């Protein structure tokens, strides 16, 4: 690999809602500052609402969220503005926000900034070959006291997106389907370039050091329609057939700092 550079950055203030692109982000012990800081919690079951179960939460990806103040890395909760599917706006400190979101979803929820000690969500598995389950809903444990699925930072290369697209030209492998925090162009890295970083440390920018813990397993969320992207089960089928249903990598923070567009990735041992 001759170089890998940061081409896009995201944080997702509310789990399973659309997030916001950033020119730079702060990174702390729990990942990108403000990322998955909030989530909707089902008032009946106590489980975290997730678009991983579109049978129960079919419109979550139609909501959008952005910060009204820059979130810090110390865990303090910054205010969030949430765009409902009808275009109306609510803020996280509005006392009516829980009822308004619940009315839109058709299910009572609470917008939470503190995760349960042992958070759980439900995941629907479409009926596709090469998946661990087929046409069933499973309960999935999340990391303790967080709203993350597996790890705190998700990275993806354009190399991987292009590799999958080449195997299914009729599909649309827009990065929004995969919801990474960091998108990189790995020039000269070949297909699925980030696979070579698993188990190693990487440096982004001047200060941020991450340990890559493994590949990012994909789910039904990649197949859902959102914005102008159509629903397409072929996206997940292609990832399952050609790359073990993994797209991108997960990492944990070793040392925090800042990441900005154009920063270079340096691979360690």
List the SSEs and their pairings.
Blueprint lengths: L2 E9 L8 E3 L1 E5 L2 E2 L6 E4 L21 E4 L12 E4 L5 E3 L5 H9 L3 E4 L7 E6 L10 E6 L11 E5 H10 L14 E6 L13 E4 L3 E10 L15 H11 L2 E10 L1 E4 L4 E3 L2
Parallel strand pairs: 12-13
Antiparallel strand pairs: 1-2, 1-13, 3-4, 3-17, 5-9, 6-7, 7-8, 10-11, 12-16, 14-15, 14-18, 15-16
Outline the structure in words.
This protein is mainly β and 269 residues long. It has one domain (3-267): M1 Pyruvate Kinase, Domain 3, CATH 2.40.33.20. The protein is 11% helix and 34% strand. The chain has helices at residues 97-105, 158-167, 233-243, and strands at residues 3-11, 20-22, 24-28, 31-32, 39-42, 64-67, 80-83, 89-91, 109-112, 120-125, 136-141, 153-157, 182-187, 201-204, 208-217, 246-255, 257-260, 265-267. It has an 8-stranded mixed β-sheet with strand order 2-1-13-12-16-15-14-18. It is globular, with a radius of gyration of 18 Å.
Reading side by side through the largest sheet, how are the strands ordered? 2-1-13-12-16-15-14-18
> What's the rounded overall pLDDT mean?
95
The string of secondary-structure elements, in order, is EEEEEEEEHEEEEHEEEHEEE
Helix content: 10-25%
Q: Structural class per helix/strand content?
A: mainly beta
Task: Tell me the total number of β-strands.
Answer: 18
Summarize the structure.
This protein is mostly beta strands. 11% of the residues lie in helices and 34% in strands. The strands form 5 sheets. An 8-stranded mixed β-sheet has the order 2-1-13-12-16-15-14-18.
């Amino acid at each position: 690999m001759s170089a890998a550079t940061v081409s896009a950055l995201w944080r997702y203030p509310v789990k399973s809602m659309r997030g916001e692109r950033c020119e730079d982000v702060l990174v702390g012990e729990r990942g990108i500052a403000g990322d998955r800081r909030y989530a909707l919690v089902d008032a009946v079951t106590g489980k975290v609402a997730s678009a991983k179960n579109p049978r129960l939460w079919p419109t979550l990806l139609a909501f959008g969220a952005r910060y009204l103040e820059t979130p810090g890395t110390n865990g303090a909760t910054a205010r969030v503005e949430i765009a409902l599917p009808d275009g109306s706006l609510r803020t996280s400190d509005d006392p009516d926000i829980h009822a308004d979101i619940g009315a839109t979803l058709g299910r009572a929820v609470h917008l939470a900034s503190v995760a349960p000690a042992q958070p759980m969500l439900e995941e629907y598995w479409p009926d596709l070959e090469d998946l661990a389950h087929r046409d069933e809903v499973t309960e999935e444990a999340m990391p303790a006291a967080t709203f993350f699925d597996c790890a705190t930072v998700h990275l993806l290369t354009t190399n991987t997106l292009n590799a999958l697209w080449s195997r299914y030209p009729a599909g649309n492998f827009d990065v929004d389907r995969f919801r990474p925090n960091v998108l990189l162009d790995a020039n000269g890295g070949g297909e699925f370039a980030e696979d070579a970083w698993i188990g190693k440390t990487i440096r982004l920018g001047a200060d941020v050091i991450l340990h890559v813990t493994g590949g990012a397993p994909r789910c039904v969320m990649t197949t859902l329609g959102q914005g102008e992207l159509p629903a397409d089960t072929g996206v997940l089928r292609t990832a399952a057939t050609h790359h073990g249903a993994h797209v991108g990598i997960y990492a944990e923070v070793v040392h925090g700092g800042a990441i900005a567009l154009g920063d270079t990735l340096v691979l360690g041992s």
